[in-house]
Design a protein that fits this description.
Elements (H helix, E strand, L loop, with lengths): L1 H15 L9 E7 L1 H4 L20 E8 L26 H4 L4 H7 L9 H16 L8 H13 L11 E3 H12 L4 E6 L6 E10 L11 E2 L5 E3 L7 E3 L2
Parallel strand pairs: 4-7
Antiparallel strand pairs: 1-2, 1-5, 3-8, 4-5, 5-6
The protein binds 2-acetamido-2-deoxy-beta-D-glucopyranose.
2-acetamido-2-deoxy-beta-D-glucopyranose binds next to loops.
Length: 237
């Protein structure tokens, strides 16, 4: 009797595994302005940053968010978000070969942007924390390619070192290009404490089966970090 009960329970548990609901609500593509990312004191970058990284937006990550606009928990082998284990980060170089060049250009590790080995470590971190529980747990190429394809299709929104804008003007500028409301993230120069435009984040709906992430939508919140409202003045270092 005990055996049958154990069997029934194991059977029910095994039935439940593929039913783990995927709590992805939408994706947030985070594009960083390197001189801001490098001057807040959180990261030590080459100074000055090698061109073109002193004047272009680079990819920070593309993050699956839940309905409350929180990032999903990272992959946990004890409570896997997906029935098939995702590929390990050490296989990324091989799996990402078709877009390796573009990844190095658009998704550099700003601490060492010209070092492909450093860049691979950054991608490995993004895969572990944000990719493995995305809609592409077994297909890192599609996950990374989604972000690269979007970035390649975007301008730098006319951002120029030395410019000063209100956070509201940045929103207007970006939404004029993408026809959706972005989220603006700001930080501060560690020495002068001036508010800087740090990241422009764009939000996307979940992909169709087999497809890439590509359907832009409004982000749930407009401002985060050191900018709180449309009136804040932000510098572009
Ligand atoms: C902070 O701003 C000053 C003045 O613009 C600049 O010289 C300095 O390099 C910035 N700090 C860092 C850590 O980049």
């Amino acid at each position: 009797m005990g055996h049958i009960l154990t069997f029934v329970i194991l059977f029910l548990v095994s039935m439940m595994v593929p039913c783990i609901s995927n709590p992805v609500s939408f994706y947030k593509l985070s594009l960083q302005w390197p001189p801001s990312a490098c001057s807040s004191g959180k990261m030590k970058c080459p100074n000055p940053l090698p061109p073109p990284y002193n004047q272009m937006l680079t990819i920070h990550g593309i993050w699956p968010q839940d309905v409350n606009d929180e990032p999903l928990d990272p992959y946990d082998p004890l409570h896997p978000c997906t029935p098939v284990p995702p590929p390990d980060r050490k296989n990324l170089r091989t799996l990402l070969k078709p877009i390796y060049q573009q990844l190095n250009t658009y998704w550099p590790d700003l601490k060492n942007p010209l070092d492909t080995f450093a860049n691979e470590i950054f991608w490995g971190h993004e895969w572990d924390f944000h990719g493995k529980c995305s809609d592409y747990p077994t297909d890192p190429l599609k996950y990374f390619d989604s972000a690269v394809k979007i970035r390649v299709g975007l301008p730098d929104f006319g951002l120029k070192s030395g410019d000063k804008k209100t956070a509201g003007q940045v929103i207007t500028l970006v939404s004029g290009f993408v026809h959706a409301t972005p989220e603006i993230a700001c930080n501060r120069n560690i020495t002068t404490r001036v508010i800087q435009l740090w990241e422009i984040r764009l939000c996307y709906g979940r992909p169709s089966p087999q497809g890439l992430i590509q359907h832009i939508r409004d982000c749930p919140s407009k401002f985060t970090g050191s900018c709180k409202n449309a009136q804040n003045t932000v510098t572009i270092p």
